[in-house]
Design a protein that fits this description.
heterodimer, A: 477 residues, alpha/beta, Spore Coat Polysaccharide Biosynthesis Protein SpsA, Chain A, 8-stranded mixed sheet, 17 helices, 8 strands, 56% helix, B: 510 residues, 2 domains, 5-stranded mixed sheet, two-stranded antiparallel sheet, 20 helices, 59% helix
């Protein structure tokens, strides 16, 4: 099938042009820069004028933030363990809807340097149980990605597959490519899959049924993500435990509490007209999914979870994982900065509880990753030296809170990973979940890389290499 | 409406309002008894010791120092008193913190029992009667009114039993975690609760294997179940090592064994008699839930296993209960509390089993259950009558402050008042005596009090003007003799009429 050039009136940067205040093209606005400068000056004055009290205040703030985050995350996971938060769709309900009644669907698959996995991708998408006359699958190919385009040309594609060549332009990001695909989509619903994804065959039908059952303001459904190579090595085991907590427990807990959902980068099912109204994805945000989840909520729409899993490839390579995770953290920082440009308006748009959830979920992740090594170092120094300065910075209430974080908070986060494995049925991974503090070290490494890259190259997309999975495991049913 | 844990009948969960009403009623009843006891000037020594440690943590040094939590007894009771000491020191010094904590825990336990009884299928009136009987049980309300660590154990043991029963039915991870957390709390309250842990672990293992033979599932489930307990144990051992210099310091408690007063051959009967006196219907309930093993899985079987496990462990190895005093009330506390709390839960499951089948051909009450109910009741009455088992006080006695665990602390309070009213130049007071911790607490100024533990009198760091509080005249003579070579003597300031706690001032000899 020949590639279809896009119309000339497609604007993949609609968010920039129509909603610049919600676009990450600028990392920091002028007011944010001014705020940072003022904060830095205040900090410097505080440190010079009253060193210990200033450090105590900063320390107290972060420790109480840690406690809040621990309690909040545990609360969300606990709620998820107690009730099913996903929209449940039974086999009978799916059978009730005839093919004629099903909505039209578009699948966007952004591809860049994915020549090795095109074959598996086409197999996986061909297995989707959905009438092909109502389904359009767009393979979004970058103009200069010759190898992937050639691989796509050499693959026998069913008629409902379309190859879309995305013109070379900046920023070169996945959301920009998705915006091209969105502009060409004329279906009712739309979903994104990544190159290595293996969605459950009935996921589209399930999503269609779920949209029928859900309230009208539900504009997005997030399927669960997990990995088809969980046991490849220690890294994939940790990654799988983390994803099991995030998608099986944490996100469902967020949906129950009506909070904005930081979407996963794939298997997000959208109502096309809503997505187009919002201008699509922010092409400058490297976690466009998280950003879109917040924007949906700001504009009155909601995201729900469906009980369907898309199986992905867990990054099994250490430095590859660091690169991938650094992009995610960078994107979270971008998302946080974008939506905190107008903090008062954000409170009005998200509500107090939504705003709090945003701070805990997006802001809290950033803070924890960056601060963890600082506190680990402080604890080590205290044990070794009992330095008076450290003691002074931990007056009694802060000390009590710090001990709570150290002894209880850390255990809670470890146990959440255990809970994720148990809930998903990955019983053999439980013992590896117990040693996830080592995994946290990697997260902090990635976070610092992200912080640095945000300054020097904020829109650079760290491409994840796929096709490294050694385990040829079929996804569990 | 929720699906009943018993077959296919539907039950109704207790509403939030009902839970709140149960809590308030239970807590109020407990508080009334506690206040009656408190007005008598009575205390529970275990509770007071825990409260005293908590007060030291908050107030003994300029900074909060968790290392003063005490390493002789399990730490949880003292930890629970810390908020009182920090936020309302007056409640701690007066001793009111004990009945207040006790009533909160008793109320919460009552709510759990009420909720469980609702899910087991008991109608509202019956379950309220059950809860009322539990709350007014002399052992339970006595523990709650005094704030004894036993009420913490009752709360944790009951919670663990309820969670284990729910998990056994639905294999839900949340219930497994809940059970684990409650068991951890139980062990951190009384080490004897280790029998609960051992039994529960064995049950989890068996139940998981029954659900599926996969080794990974068993392994993962056991790790998830035991992880909170193992973590807390490691933290406790680490704290003992870091602060006391011995990782197993907590094991070196005085070995005055309650049940060691009973010969080894008689321990099983002693255990049985204590359990039956505390809950006469226990044997019948255990039999009802355990019988037919392998054929069906009654709701109450996990709890029954817990009770049997605690009883068996206690009979086999009472050495786990190293208690400083051989008072009957300390005998087999884990067993008596567990037997009582679990006994009421088992009653709920047994009644629920029959009440839920009123529309079916009603099953017959097994003859064994009926016989054991009669035998258990008769045994309890006979043992109590002949004095072969601990006697539980009646409610009138409780309301007059004669709780089984109550002891008078009037002289300790007098000594504390005397210390406050007679400060010395150094503002320090030295105490020697078994209940010195209570005197320290009642002064409200633990930073001014130093407790001496039977040291060589010659090595005491006494200076002119210091206060010295002693419990025995012999101690005064020893100290006076030791001070004479230093040119010092002790002059009595306050001498209590009871043979405990007199206050002396150290002076230079003329």
């Amino acid at each position: 099938m020949a590639a279809t050039p896009p119309p000339h009136d497609i604007d993949p940067l609609r968010v920039l042009h129509e909603r610049p205040h919600e676009c990450a093209s600028t990392t920091l606005t002028i007011s944010q820069r001014l705020g940072l400068v003022l904060a830095a000056i205040a900090l410097a004055i505080g440190l010079l004028w009253a060193l210990i009290p200033t450090l105590v205040i900063i320390n107290a703030f972060f420790i109480f933030f840690y406690i809040l985050q621990s309690v909040y995350k545990f609360h969300l996971v606990w709620r998820s363990l107690g009730r099913r938060a996903e929209i449940q769709v039974s086999e009978a309900e799916m059978a009730d809807i005839t093919d004629d009644e099903l909505p039209t669907y578009t699948i966007l698959v952004p591809l860049f340097r994915e020549a090795d996995v095109i074959g598996k991708l086409v197999d996986a998408l061909t297995r989707l149980d959905y009438p092909t006359d109502k389904l359009t699958i767009q393979l979004l190919l970058e103009q200069d990605d010759v190898h992937t385009t050639r691989a796509a040309d050499e693959t026998l594609l069913p008629p409902h597959f379309r190859k879309i060549i995305v013109p070379e332009s900046l920023p070169r990001t996945k959301p920009k490519a998705c915006n091209w695909g969105l502009a060409l989509a004329d279906s009712d619903l739309l979903v994104i899959f990544d190159a290595e994804d293996v969605p459950e065959p009935d996921q589209l039908r399930k999503a269609a049924c779920a949209f029928r059952k859900a309230p009208d303001n539900v504009a997005c459904l997030q399927a669960k993500l997990n990995y088809f190579n969980p046991r490849q090595n220690l890294l994939t085991k940790w990654f799988t435990a983390e994803y099991s907590v995030w998608f099986d427990l944490f996100l469902p807990g967020l949906t129950v509490s009506g909070a904005p959902i930081p979407l996963g980068g794939t298997s997000n099912h959208f109502k096309v007209h809503v997505l187009k109204r919002l201008g699509g994805w922010d092409p400058f945000n490297v976690t466009e999914d998280c950003d879109l989840g917040v924007r949906l909520h700001k504009h009155g729409y909601r995201t729900a979870m469906i009980d369907s899993t898309t199986w992905e490839e867990a990054n099994s390579h250490f430095f590859g994982w660091i690169r991938q995770r650094s992009r995610w953290v960078k994107g979270y920082i971008q998302t946080y900065l974008v939506h905190m440009r107008r903090p008062i308006r954000l409170v009005r748009q998200l509500g107090i509880s939504g705003w709090f959830s945003f701070q805990m979920t997006v802001g809290g992740s950033i803070v924890c990753f960056l601060l963890n090594p600082v506190y680990w170092l402080l604890t080590l120094l205290w044990v070794l030296t009992h330095a008076h300065l450290i003691q002074a910075v931990f007056p009694t209430p802060v000390y009590v809170a710090g001990v709570f974080c150290l002894l209880v908070g850390n255990f809670v986060f470890v146990y959440l990973n255990v809970a994720g494995c148990m809930n998903r049925g990955y019983y053999d991974l439980v013992k590896y979940a117990v040693i996830t503090p080592l995994y946290w070290l990697m997260m902090s490494w990635a976070a610092y890389k992200a912080a640095g890259q945000l300054i020097v190259n904020p829109h650079y997309w760290e491409k994840t290499k796929h096709g490294l999975a050694k385990e040829d495991t079929e996804p569990a049913a | 409406m929720t699906r009943s844990p018993t077959d296919n009948q539907q039950t109704t969960a207790a509403s939030t309002l009902e839970g709140l009403a149960v809590f308030l009623a239970s807590a109020l009843a407990c508080l009334l008894v506690g206040l009656a006891v408190w007005r008598q000037g009575h205390v529970d020594w275990d509770a007071t010791a825990a409260l005293s440690h908590a007060f030291d943590v908050v107030h003994k040094e300029p900074r909060f120092n968790l290392a003063l939590i005490g390493f002789t007894e399990p730490p949880l009771p003292a930890i629970l008193y810390i908020p009182f000491c920090g936020l309302a020191p007056t409640l701690a010094v007066s001793g009111l913190a004990c009945p207040i904590l006790g009533c909160i825990l008793l109320g919460t336990t009552a709510v759990m029992l009420n909720g469980f009884a609702a899910r087991a299928g008991l109608p509202p009136l019956l379950r309220w009667l059950l809860v009322a009987a539990f709350v007014m049980h002399p052992l339970i309300i006595g523990l709650g009114a005094m704030g004894d660590p036993g009420i913490v154990l009752a709360f944790a043991g009951a919670g663990a039993a309820f969670a284990l029963m729910r998990w056994s039915r639905n294999q839900g991870f949340r219930d497994l975690l809940t059970c684990s957390l409650f068991l951890t709390a139980a062990v951190l309250t009384r080490y004897e609760a280790l029998w609960l842990v051992i039994t529960a672990t064995a049950y989890v293992l068996w139940r998981t294997r029954r659900a599926g033979p996969e080794r990974a599932r068993t392994e993962g489930t056991l790790i998830a179940f035991l992880l909170p307990l193992l973590y807390c144990a490691c933290v406790w051992v680490g704290a003992n090592w870091a602060i006391m210099g011995d990782p197993l310091h907590f094991c070196t408690r005085p070995a005055t064994l309650g049940a060691d007063h009973v010969p080894a051959a008689g321990r099983p009967l002693w255990v049985l008699s204590v359990a039956v006196v505390c809950f006469p219907a226990l044997l019948a309930a255990l039999y009802h839930e355990i019988r037919g093993i392998g054929r069906r899985l009654p709701l109450g079987r996990p709890a029954a296993c817990l009770a049997i496990g605690v009883a068996s462990g206690t009979a086999l190895w009472p050495g786990l209960q190293a208690l400083p005093q051989p008072a009957w009330s300390h005998h087999l506390l884990a067993l008596s509390v567990t037997a009582t709390a679990i006994g009421f839960a088992l009653l709920a499951t047994v009644f629920g089993f029959y009440l839920q089948r009123k529309h079916e051909p009603r099953p017959k009450l097994p003859m064994g259950t009926l016989l054991l109910a009669i035998i258990g009741t008769a045994l309890a009455v006979w043992l109590s009558a002949v004095g072969r088992a601990p006697t539980l006080p009646g409610l009138p006695d409780l309301l007059q402050g004669r709780s089984a665990l109550a002891a008078t602390a009037i002289t300790e309070r007098k000594a504390a008042r005397a210390i406050r009213d007679n400060p010395g130049p150094s503002q320090l007071a030295y105490l020697m005596g078994d209940t010195a911790f209570a005197v320290s607490l009642f002064t409200g100024a633990p930073d001014r009090v130093i407790i001496l533990h039977h040291r060589d009198p010659g090595a005491l760091p006494l200076n002119p003007g210091d206060l010295l509080a002693l419990t025995a005249p012999a101690e005064e003579r020893r100290i006076a003799a030791a001070l004479r070579p230093k040119g010092l003597r002790v002059r009595p300031i306050v001498v209590c009429e009871s043979p405990t706690w007199s206050l002396f001032r150290v002076e230079r000899r003329p």
